[in-house]
């Protein structure tokens, strides 16, 4: 799905890759990302004079997330401009060290999937809140404090701290 024919790129100079990656595609499995719909991928792939392959473009989609304070469902738009560089000099072990992804120049196709997945993971905000003033959930009873006060008492003493309190009161 996110593959490009390197022979075609060499012949034409650049190739436009436009596709929608479904929300339930295997590319997103085990990524911790839930999509509310498909992800639009638009990349122009070309050869650099240095033997590298460069893909520039955009990724757009809507994430299905939860407020980290009150767990209210949210949808957040992701629109990311990306530049992906693929180099034959990079190995799988080097991927975290630089800005390039590995590719085998002897192969006919270049799979853009893992690079796109990595860029999306880096672009997502894992700490979304529904409102900066969100009060979250009560840590004792789990009531949503945005909807009103809960019935918990203000000061419940944890018995595990009694030994330290006794030392402090001396």
Give an account of the 3D structure.
It is a single chain. This protein is α+β, with helices and mostly antiparallel strands and 170 residues long. The protein folds into two domains: 3-123, no CATH class; 135-170, no CATH class. The protein has three helices and seven strands. The protein has helices spanning 6-12, 113-123, 162-168; strands spanning 3-5, 14-21, 39-47, 53-66, 73-87, 100-102, 109-111. A five-stranded mixed sheet has the order 2-3-4-5-6. A two-stranded antiparallel ribbon has the order 1-7. The termini are far apart.
Notable traits:
alpha+beta, two-stranded antiparallel sheet, 32% strand, 3 helices, single chain
Strand proportion:
25-35%
What structural class do helix, strand and pairing data support? alpha+beta
Strand order of the largest sheet: 2-3-4-5-6
Sequence of secondary-structure elements: EHEEEEEEHH
Radius of gyration, taken over Cα atoms and rounded to an integer in Å: 24 Å
Low-pLDDT windows of residues: none
Dominant shape = elongated
> How many domains make up the 3D coordinates?
2
